[in-house]
Design brief:
Layout (H helix, E strand, L loop, with lengths): L7 H13 L23 E2 L24 E2 L23 E10 L7 E10 L10 E6 L17 H11 L6 E6 L13 H4 L1 H16 L20 E6 L1 H11 L8 E5 L8 H9 L7 E7 L6 H9 L1 H4 L9 E6 L5 H15 L3
Parallel strand pairs: 5-6, 5-7, 7-8, 8-9, 9-10
Antiparallel strand pairs: 1-3, 2-10, 3-4, 4-6
Length: 351
């Protein structure tokens, strides 16, 4: 498996950019949605008991301009419908479980470590059924809780409940792991992000496919993970978008067929590198979705360099068929990332 490489100098530069954009020690990626002030949920959440009163809005330009809004796709929206950010009113909701799995410390001494993740299960989940799985990655300052599945009023969960409950997408499982291959919870060691592919392949995916109803035929003696690659997707925000490009496409096309990069971080592979990988792979990309805010002074240039011109150098990526580049008014923040997830799920897993 190929590894992405980053020098200490460039790592420090990227870390400075991502953590310094607000002028404080906190970065915009680790700023959770407004509902993050709520108490954590229990390990399994079956319903919400309070009504969400805060919503996030995205300003949408009334006219399409090169500097604020552009897209290469038909099937997308410019904002998440407000009702989809609220608790689903039409029936049964999905549940959330907290899991703990064993992983190797691949950038340390190789000792086993315990890692946590959250798993969204759709309404009516059948342990004997078969479900597609989205592995959804966080940003540089985040962890398994950054997407908010640990919250009693989780916007991500609301979006999923509404997409599934209204018949927009097939019922899916969503996993939000800690994307750092370290025993510690919040190390900013950049190498932890680039080594996560080992853990993803060898530890996390097998755990999910052993314990949940996926399309894979798990066996502790080993099994062919490539046979069910079309039922797995990888997506993420900022550094998680970089991981989707560098690890998902760059190292694991045998495991995934759908990819979503939301404000992909500056260390994302250039389009030429990704095109070379895709063109040389025996596996096809079923969908590659990209979005970035037009006012994102952290990731816009890198996201464009990583994805915007891919169809021109990669014959298998065709706009409106299996590729989207979308630029909307917004910065390096949650309105863009929630919109990215909403559009990616709706396009890639349409019912």
């Amino acid at each position: 498996m190929k590894k992405s490489v980053i020098t200490i100098t460039s790592a420090a530069l990227i870390l400075s950019m991502l953590t310094g954009c607000t002028g404080t020690t906190a970065n915009t990626e680790s700023t959770l949605p407004k509902e993050s002030t709520s108490a954590p949920v229990s390990e399994t959440t079956t319903s919400e008991t309070t009504t969400e009163t805060t919503t996030e809005t995205t300003t949408t330009a009334t006219t399409t301009t090169e500097t604020t809004k552009e897209s290469i796709a038909y099937n997308y929206e410019s904002e998440v419908p407000q009702e989809y950010t609220m608790s689903f009113k039409g029936g049964e909701k999905g549940t959330v479980e907290k899991i703990s799995y064993t992983a190797k410390d691949y950038i340390g001494d190789g000792e086993s470590v315990k890692k946590n993740a959250y798993v969204y299960l759709p309404a009516g989940y059948n342990p004997k059924g078969h479900y597609d799985v989205i592995y959804l990655m966080h940003g540089i300052g985040g962890s398994e809780v950054e997407w908010g599945l640990n919250l009693p009023q989780s916007r991500l969960k609301n979006i999923l409940d509404n997409l599934i409950g209204n018949g927009d997408i097939k019922p899916v499982i969503v996993v939000t792991p800690n994307g750092k291959a370290l025993a510690c919870k919040h190390s900013q060691d950049m190498e932890s992000f680039y080594n996560f592919g080992y853990e993803l392949r060898n530890d996390l995916i097998p755990y999910i496919e052993k314990h949940y109803a996926t399309y894979a035929k798990y066996s502790k003696k080993g099994y062919d993970m490539t046979k069910t690659r079309e039922h797995r997707a990888m997506a993420g925000l900022s550094m998680g978008g970089m991981q989707t490009i560098n690890i998902g496409i760059g190292e694991c096309m045998d495991l995934f067929s759908r990819f979503g990069a939301f404000s992909a971080a500056p260390t994302s592979n250039a389009a030429s590198t990704t095109a070379k990988t895709i063109n040389g792979s025996e596996y096809k990309v079923d969908y590659f979705y990209n979005i970035c805010g037009s006012d994102d002074n952290i990731a816009l240039a890198s996201a464009e360099a990583a994805a915007k011109d891919l169809p021109g150098i990669c014959d298998s990526l065709v706009p409106n068929e299996n590729f989207t580049w979308q630029k909307e008014p917004g910065g390096h923040d949650w309105p863009i990332w929630y919109l990215g997830f909403y559009n990616f799920a709706k396009i890639a897993f349409a019912k």
